[in-house]
Amino acid sequence: MTHPEKPNPSNSDAAVSSRRQVLKYGAGFGIALAWPNSTVLGANDAIRVGVVGVNGRGQSHMSAFSKMDGVRVSALCDVDPNVLDARVTSLSKGQDYSIKGFSDIRAMLDSGEIDVFSTATPNHWHTLAGIWALQAGKDAYVEKPISHNVWEGRQLVNLARKLNRICQGGTQSRSMGSIQAAVKWVHDGNLGKINYVKGLCYKPRQSIGKGGGGEIPAGVDYDIWSGPAAIEKPLRRKKFHYDWHWFYAYGNGDMGNQGIHQMDVARWFLGESKIAPRTLSLGGRLGYDDDGETPNTQIVYHDYEAAPLIFETRGLPKDKASQESGWGKGMNTPEEFPGKSGIAVVVVCEGGKVYVSAGGDVQVIDKDGKKMEAPKAFKTEDNFENFITAVRAGKRDLQYAECEETHISSALCHTGLISHQLGTAVHSQEARESIKADAVLSDRYASMEDHLGQNGVNLNKETLTLGAYLKFNPDTEWYEGNGDLDAKANKLARPSYREPYVVPEVG
């Protein structure tokens, strides 16, 4: 097998190479620069894929691409040498070609080993990794959320347009034939006007503990892992891998982890092509006291003109007893579709309701609650196959999850969290009073409050965060009209980056 390439700081050639990479990929890197191998691949050419971030979700990338005819995973990249070595070893078994290992994404992009790029790094790396790949002349598959903040997602989209590259988002629900058919069926008016859409992420998330102080795994290049974010020492979490999801510097909570899929489907049903003009959050990290920052319980209200998009995150099980019996075995289910998975979308229309699960299960009931026949699923490719199809053809319009679609839906997660971060602590009565004019939102808040009560959280004694009700300009993708809050909100929408890991502005 081919062992991972490890930089040696004492080697002068390696040091020179590192300096060159900083110059090439730093803030001043030419936006329009494309490497020589940026031509459209022919139908009979084998496409060589490089996958970055192979500890978790990246294994699905490896598996999907390695099973396709005319496609091979030729390179893997990860900052954890133990993870990288294990993945290169496992993927090399049964292959008739070598797989190169890299610890630095820049070295992989410069190597000449890959034609297209796929990334499943932590969220704070998604956009920059995608931008570097596009600049290096590679078409890119970028995992969800496609961005870590609102502003950078638009830069990725702008660059894909400027360089005429294929950039696919990891919102794979768009590739499910059952969901495609259900969206079209609703858009065709079969249930009349949409009153509102709910995205649900009722997914078990237990405490990550208190005290932080976790260890950085031996051999990990922590500078590269931190990338655009500030280097944090000591760690504020006990578990290095995965628990970064619950810290704003790296992740976007469960709404930006699992929930981005349901946010995307909910917006797709609404037919909205822009970020919502007004957003409000209600929630907090409730039911336990740990080091995590992001909400485990939250309602986000995206106030679109035609109909609202309501997103609900619940990490606690349905009641206190379920906390003692395995959490995931006792989660809430949608009230309109009892017993169905709570990781789903519910579309409430004048003439009935539609349920779509994360796995593509579609159920329809009429306005009286009588079950209706669901539309017949379309024949589709999966999201990875669709990406390769678009790459081979060089046609953006063939993509199911083109990067702008994933950007808009990712941004809806970000604006929900920004509202939360700029909110104030309140008790139940104040929260109820603030939203009493909106019957739907009041109803959803009452449901959330009951859910918390079942888990022993009394909001008459404890507080939650009433987010700022923020106005947003969907055309400029900037906060406007919020007085002194504009500067604070826009700072969260476009935070600063650590050199040389800077996302460039693309006009």
Describe this structure in words.
With 507 residues, the protein is an alpha/beta fold. The chain has two domains: 4-172, NAD(P)-binding Rossmann-like Domain (Rossmann fold); 175-379 and 403-493, Dihydrodipicolinate Reductase, domain 2 (2-Layer Sandwich), CATH 3.30.360.10. The protein has 15 helices and 19 strands. It has helices at residues 12-25, 58-66, 81-92, 105-110, 126-135, 150-163, 177-187, 222-226, 259-270, 320-323, 383-393, 403-421, 428-435, 439-454, 485-493; strands at 4-5, 47-52, 71-77, 100-102, 116-119, 139-142, 167-169, 194-202, 278-284, 297-302, 309-314, 343-349, 352-357, 362-366, 371-372, 424-426, 464-466, 470-473, 478-479. The strands form two sheets. Strands 8, 9, 10, 11, 12, 13, 14, 15, 16, 17, 18 and 19 form a twelve-stranded mixed β-sheet that branches. It has a seven-stranded parallel β-sheet with strand order 1-4-3-2-5-6-7, sandwiched between helices. A hairpin with a 4-residue loop joins strand 14 and strand 15. Helix 6 packs antiparallel against helix 12 (403-421) and helix 7 (177-187) runs parallel beside helix 9 (259-270). The longest helix is centred in the C-terminal third of the chain and has 19 residues, at 403-421. The model is unreliable at 1-20 and 27-40 (pLDDT under 50).
